[in-house]
Amino acid sequence: MSKNVSETYPQNDPQIERFWDKVDVRSLAECWLWTAGKFAKGYGAFAYAGHRPGYAHRFSYLLHHGDIPEGALVMHSCDTPACVNPTHLRLGTAGDNARDSVSKGRWMTPARVAGLERSLAARMAALRDRYPPPVPEWMSKFE
Ligand SMILES: [Zn+2]
């Protein structure tokens, strides 16, 4: 059926590196604020590979949770438009179809949180390799 992007996370995609370069990554509990250009209401704007800029939080949702059903909105449980922390993003609705897909459990499962933590740990390790000490303070939160 529909492709789940999070299962095919392209680890070495330079566009994804570009995305992360614009995010203030913190612990999973905190908001990860978009530090680059924003749309009028404060939502992060990210242009993937020359495409028209789209919502950064939707890109983050696609990256970590997979597809966004037609017509569904990606909403913030933290009410922070600039936040792209995937654990703060959930599908919301303009209609019953999307609401239905939320109730069918597309939202973060414990396995997905565990997977995300693993991918974050790997990412932090890669960053540490690339940028030798001193390691930025925020990275230590993932050890
Ligand atoms: Zn948040």
Q: What descriptive keywords fit this protein?
A:
binds zinc ion; 6 strands; Homing Intron 3 (I-Ppo) Encoded Endonuclease, Chain A; alpha+beta; two-stranded antiparallel ribbon; 35% helix; single chain
Description:
This protein has helices at 14-21, 56-65, 96-106, 110-130; strands at residues 23-24, 33-34, 45-46, 54-55, 73-76, 89-92. With 143 residues, the chain is an alpha+beta fold. It has a domain at 5-92: Homing Intron 3 (I-Ppo) Encoded Endonuclease, Chain A (Alpha-Beta Complex). A two-stranded antiparallel ribbon has the order 1-2. Strands 3-4 form a two-stranded antiparallel ribbon. A hairpin with an 8-residue loop joins strand 1 (23-24) and strand 2. The radius of gyration is 15 Å and the shape is globular. 20% of the residues are buried. Residues 31, 76, 78, 80, 83, 85, 88 line the site of zinc ion.
* Strand content range: 5-15%
Strand order of the largest sheet: 1-2
Report the strand count: 6
- What is the CATH topology descriptor of the domain at 5-92? Homing Intron 3 (I-Ppo) Encoded Endonuclease, Chain A
Question: Which geometry do the CA atoms define?
Answer: globular
Order of SSEs, N→C?
A: HEEEEHEEHH
What's the rounded overall pLDDT mean?
73
Number of helices: 4
Distance between the termini: 36 Å
Blueprint (SSEs and pairs):
Layout: H1 14-21, E1 23-24, E2 33-34, E3 45-46, E4 54-55, H2 56-65, E5 73-76, E6 89-92, H3 96-106, H4 110-130
Antiparallel strand pairs: 1-2, 3-4, 5-6
Residues 31, 76, 78, 80, 83, 85, 88 line the site of zinc ion (ZN).
Gist of the model:
The chain is built from 4 helices and 6 strands, in the order αββββαββαα. With 143 residues, the protein is α+β, with helices and mostly antiparallel strands. The site of zinc ion has 7 residues, from loops.
